[in-house]
Design a protein that fits this description.
Chain lengths: 370, 352
């Protein structure tokens, strides 16, 4: 017998007056056009952007190497009636997403302009600053529910630290974002100054899937299809979890909080078991680790829930949630992308009110101190 | 006679190209390996002195773990209780860049294992090592060895030159299907790519961890390129892949396929059902949860008792003691994985 939750119960909840207000940890705002940035970008870099554009480790200037199933990866109903790409119109975002779903806080994750992957580091530094200013001016200041992240190019340490300091002084940003597709695995020491600064400032480190790191999306080479590349996001996050834990980042920075964004959470239990199982065998290689790998995961990492797994049996999703731990999960919708999770229907397994409150609100409020 | 129990993954070791393999090379390559000192092809994935590469009590006085036939017989058969065992040789022919050299070394490995192992103990079987660097030469090697039923599968690395679903490999799968040889994908890398999308890790421990993701990428490649539609009788065995990642991996694959299957219209069923029909896994390492309930839940989530194959991974150090079966496995799985599933997966086992 299947114990999938019945839809009438969900619909009743969706219209209840006392419905839970939620924190959505992954909302993608977009530039209306690159000209939006002119106000924040020195003339020299405006010209550079027009003349040379992005320099990324990918074959095409105008699109992704793995064509998505919809334009700009987006929901087809998310194109604003006023024109511009999905996620570029605050009024429409409010009307379609923030208001009807009772989003109390939404965390902005900017993917435009591939801040993390620009090969020209000076250009990268200029646009990271411009994007960070744009987040406040176009979004947070116009709707205080929307919280900005400090985007920094992880492979340009000096500029990253300066930008973190500049933004942190405003008190308006809630995390430091870097990319899981960096030049090197994120556990390596070249990235530690960024972690040191984030820890000192009490800002979580946010790591959202995506970027062009120059390495093939899989350990076996370049896939042919988007359906392969899309799933490789979860593999990338698993590899970064291992890198950050095994390199000893959490031994060195015991107060660091790390949020994995859009990696889903289905893979985490087996990743912890695998790390723990082989820890004894490899212990002499990593004497800097004082605890079992899973203990670092359960203390330092949080995971946003989208794309949520959809096993045929609801009890299987329940088992997954318990293995990872309700306290580690932060709801995210990924609005306005095609694989959006609707907070009313995403969890196809029964949760108690207390559990829902944690996943949809209090866990995120505690991590991000909002 | 002991009950039938088929160990699907043990590792005899090649001492070296100029020693062990020399008698099995043709004159050209004999001269080449000696004059150019082409030797030391142990894979970076498995440095022989690393604890994982050899359990302490399975290390010979001299030489690499797995290099001594008598020791392997004592360990795999007497101590661990197998009635038959499949030899998978991980010496680095699969990682050579020169396709002719790769082919010559693969031939030598196969002829060596036949003469010095299979002919010495009738309980042993082996996988055919093939040069996937040149699929036409891989097909030649399969055809050359196919009449010998002691070879029961085809061995390739989890991380080679390109993902395994790609069309240039299809002639290999045609030959595999024709001769009832499953494709055995074993942990190990030719180091053509960083072991994962995040780049080159510092530690062997990280490298070993991300092998599990490489296997997952290979399954997606085989499924989405349409290999199982084209070769419906092909079976693929994941060796030393870990097992417990399967459920969440299959759910994610199903969800992604439902969303974007317009891209691969030839994939007509959910990936999970294709995986359950065509993919098999060896059970060391299992990477299980610590408790019996957790293990039972994982087995229930995988949803097929036909996928599991008994394996010790001898002489690799995956477990201590004399029992290679991971703790807490339900009895129904144990009996199937030791006999029925291996016989179904490797049909040529029945021919002897």
């Amino acid at each position: 017998m299947s114990d999938v939750i019945d839809r009438p119960a969900l619909e009743k909840e969706a219209t209840a007056a006392t419905r839970l207000r939620i924190v959505d940890c992954d909302i993608h705002p977009s530039l209306h056009s690159r000209a939006d940035l002119n106000h924040f970008l020195p003339k020299r870099w405006q010209e550079h952007m027009k003349t040379y554009g992005d320099h990324l480790r990918t074959p095409y200037i105008g699109t992704t190497p793995y064509p998505r199933s919809s334009p700009l990866i987006c929901r087809r109903d998310a194109w604003p009636p006023t024109g511009g790409p999905p996620g570029s119109d605050l009024a429409f975002m409010r009307q379609q997403h923030l208001d009807p779903l009772d989003v109390e806080f939404g965390i902005l994750q900017v993917l435009d302009l591939f801040i993390f992957s620009q090969q020209n580091l000076e250009f990268g530094a200029a646009i990271q600053r411009a994007i960070n200013e744009w987040q406040l001016a176009f979004w947070s200041h116009r709707d205080p529910r929307l919280k900005a992240s400090i985007l920094v190019s992880q492979d340009n340490t000096e500029a990253a630290l300066a930008e973190i300091d500049r933004c942190a002084k405003t008190g308006e940003y809630i995390q430091v974002n870097i990319s899981p597709r960096a030049n090197e695995p994120l556990g390596r020491r070249r990235y530690w100054p960024i972690y040191e600064r984030a820890e000192a400032l009490g800002l979580p480190l946010g790591i959202h899937v995506g970027g062009y790191g120059g390495h093939a999306p899989t350990g076996g080479g370049w896939p042919s299809y988007y359906c392969e590349e899309h799933q490789s996001n979860a593999h990338t996050m698993a590899a970064q979890l291992a890198s950050l834990v095994i390199e000893g980042v959490l031994e060195r920075f015991p107060k660091l909080k790390i949020v994995f964004i859009e990696g889903g959470f289905g893979w985490i239990a087996s990743a912890m078991w695998r790390m723990d199982r082989h820890f004894e065998r490899f212990r002499s290689e990593v004497p800097h680790l004082k605890r079992k790998p899973s203990e670092y995961v359960k203390e330092h990492f949080w995971f946003t829930t989208q794309p949520i797994d959809e096993p045929d049996e609801a009890r299987h999703l329940r088992q997954l949630i318990e293995w990872v731990g309700i306290d580690r999960l932060l709801f995210s919708s990924d609005y306005p992308h095609w694989d959006f999770d609707d907070p009313r229907f995403a969890f196809k397994t029964p949760l108690t009110d207390a559990e829902r409150k944690k996943i949809f609100s209090t866990n995120a409020r505690a991590v991000y101190k909002i | 006679m002991a009950a039938t129990r088929i160990d699907c993954d043990i590792h005899p070791a090649v001492g070296g190209t100029r020693t062990t393999l020399l008698p099995y090379l043709d004159d050209h390559w004999k001269e080449q390996v000696v004059s150019r000192a082409i030797d030391g092809l142990d894979l970076t994935s498995y440095p022989p002195n690393m604890p994982l590469s050899g359990r302490p009590d399975w290390r010979p006085q001299a030489g690499k773990p797995g290099s001594d036939l008598k020791m392997v017989q004592r360990g795999a058969f007497e101590q661990l209780g197998a009635s038959h065992a499949i030899c998978n040789v991980l010496y680095g022919a699969q990682a050579v860049y020169d396709p002719y050299m790769a082919s010559a070394f693969c031939k030598a490995i196969n002829d060596w294992i036949a003469a010095e192992w299979l002919s010495q103990d009738e309980r042993l079987r082996a996988s055919i090592v093939v040069p996937m660097q040149a699929p036409d030469l891989a097909v030649e090697e399969i055809e050359r060895r196919a009449s010998d039923n002691r070879f029961v599968s085809i061995l390739v690395l989890a991380q080679g030159e390109t993902l395994l679903g790609r069309r240039h490999f299809w002639p290999v799968y045609q030959a595999a299907e024709k001769h009832k040889l499953p494709l055995a994908i074993h942990a190990g890398s030719a180091y053509r790519f960083a072991p994962s999308s995040i780049g080159w890790p510092s530690h062997r421990y990280e490298y070993y961890f991300v092998e599990a993701q490489a296997f997952q990428a290979q399954i997606l490649s085989l499924v989405y390129e349409g290999v199982f539609g084209k070769f419906p009788n092909l079976k693929v065995v994941l060796m030393e892949s870990g097992v417990t990642w399967l459920p969440a991996f299959m759910w994610r694959a199903n969800k992604t396929w439902r969303g974007v299957r317009v891209e691969v219209p030839w994939v007509e069923r959910e990936p999970a059902s294709i995986i359950r029909d065509h993919i098999r896994v060896t059970m060391q390492p299992f990477d299980g949860p610590p408790d019996a309930t957790g293990v039972a839940d994982v087995i229930d989530q995988i949803g097929s008792d036909r996928m599991f194959l008994f394996a010790s991974d001898y002489p690799h150090w995956q477990f201590d003691g004399d029992d290679a079966i991971p703790p807490h496995l339900p009895q129904s799985i144990v009996s199937r994985m030791c006999v029925d599933n291996p016989l179904e997966t490797f049909p040529r086992l029945k021919l002897n």
